[in-house]
């Protein structure tokens, strides 16, 4: 009952977009009852809103370890993987959601987003070999729309900007 009370308080702060306080209350709920998947799922959502995708990924993964049928946990895990630039792992998570709920439109859309990122990665790889750095920068910009926390994409973009002689931009990205 105490854990549920903490969760409810966390939900209230989350609704007010006070994600730091929401995080604190979800953490208290987890400390009180560490085997509840939804508490980890809620804290993962809060961490995602704070842009802390690596930490959020850990919580999302814990939520699905505790309950493999927890659809929102799989969705959040996938979104974290995608934000961090791991489109393959993201695809697996979204496919798992569709196994559990084949009509889940969010998972269907996110699966397309993951495929888009994979496609831009492939194109960028080929264009880098061809030394078409402008096109690589273009591909990385598109991929970063879906994977804003991916250091690998940012570094590749910065490297290509430097190779194009666009040093201030490269430095800014790096």
TrEMBL record:
Q: Which UniProt keywords apply?
A: TPR repeat
- The UniProt entry annotates TPR repeats at 3-36
**Pfam families (alphabetical):** TPR_11 (PF13414)
The protein's matches in InterPro entries, at most eight in alphabetical order, are given as: SRC_co-chaperone (IPR052758), TPR-like_helical_dom_sf (IPR011990), TPR_rpt (IPR019734)
| Keyword Transferase annotated | no
Q: Which Gene3D superfamilies is this protein grouped with?
A: Tetratricopeptide repeat domain (1.25.40.10)
- Judging by the UniProt lineage, the source's domain of life is Eukaryota
Q: Where are the transmembrane segments?
A: none
User: Does the record carry Lipid metabolism as a key word?
Assistant: no
Task: Please give the SMART domains that the UniProt record associates with this protein.
Answer: TPR
Name of the protein this chain belongs to: DNJC7 protein
User: Which lineage ranks, top first, belong to the organism behind this chain?
Assistant: Eukaryota, Metazoa, Chordata, Craniata, Vertebrata
What gene does the UniProt entry assign to this protein?
A: Dnajc7
């Amino acid at each position: 009952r105490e854990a549920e009370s903490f969760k409810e308080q966390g939900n209230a702060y989350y609704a007010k977009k006070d994600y730091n306080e929401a995080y604190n209350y979800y953490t208290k709920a987890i400390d009180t009852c560490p085997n509840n998947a939804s508490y980890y799922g809620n804290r993962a959502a809060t961490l995602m809103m704070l842009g802390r995708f690596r930490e959020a990924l850990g919580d999302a993964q814990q939520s699905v370890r505790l309950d493999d049928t927890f659809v929102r946990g799989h969705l959040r895990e996938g979104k974290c993987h995608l934000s961090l630039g791991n489109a393959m792992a993201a695809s697996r998570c979204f496919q798992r959601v569709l196994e559990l709920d084949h009509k889940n439109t969010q998972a269907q859309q996110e699966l397309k987003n993951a495929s888009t990122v994979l496609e831009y990665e492939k194109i960028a790889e080929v264009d880098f070999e061809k030394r078409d750095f402008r096109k690589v920068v273009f591909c990385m910009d598109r991929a970063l729309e879906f994977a804003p926390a991916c250091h690998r994409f940012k570094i590749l973009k910065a490297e290509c900007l430097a190779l194009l002689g666009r040093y201030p931009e490269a430095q800014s990205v790096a």
